[in-house]
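subagent[fold] <- orchestrator: predict structure for attached chain, return tokens only, no commentary.
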Amino acid sequence: MPTPPITPGTAPVPPEQQGAAPPHAPGPEAQRPLLTAHAAIVLLMATVVGAIAGVLTYHSTGNMAGAVLAGLGTAGLSVPVLHNLIGG
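subagent[fold] -> orchestrator:
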């Protein structure tokens, strides 16, 4: 829709009256993501690293409980390292 020319002494027509949608500013009740993309990538990579450590530990020792503990410990310790490496 073309904008009509403004003649001297008249007020411009607001966008609401020109047929355009009113501008929308998100309020405080706007939905935010539960996890940021950075946090999701860090947690996913920590899970992968922990799973690899757990599988390798199980194959070397044959002890399932030790493998689970090794995987969980590795995943937990890799979170701050990955956070710094991936740009936190």
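orchestrator: received. Logging for downstream: Residues 44 and 79 are 10 Å apart (CA to CA). The chain has a mean pLDDT of 84.
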